[in-house]
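Reviewer 2 asked us to include a model.

Predict the structure of this chain.
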Amino acid sequence: MTVSRRSGTLRVAFKRVAEAERYEIVTTLATGGQRTTSTRRTAVTITHVARDSGGTVTVRAVAPMRQGAGRITRFRATAPPAKTRFGPLP
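Predicted model (structure tokens):
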């Protein structure tokens, strides 16, 4: 499985699994947010991912009455954390 990143977009590609009807992709950000995507293809583009947040992508093959083990890959942030007007506590 490969995950490539360009600005706020993730491109996830993986190999086909025999007898799989669809694939479930779960994107988990380091900030705690999670997004689930389902597809029948072996590649998917996930948009609106914050550039300052890394995380993991999990892909699982799904067939009637069964599902495969998930494959996990990490992706890194491409920008430093956004600055806020609040500083650290003393």
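The chain has a mean pLDDT of 91. Residues 2-75 form a domain with the Immunoglobulin-like fold (CATH 2.60.40.10). We have added this to the supplementary material.
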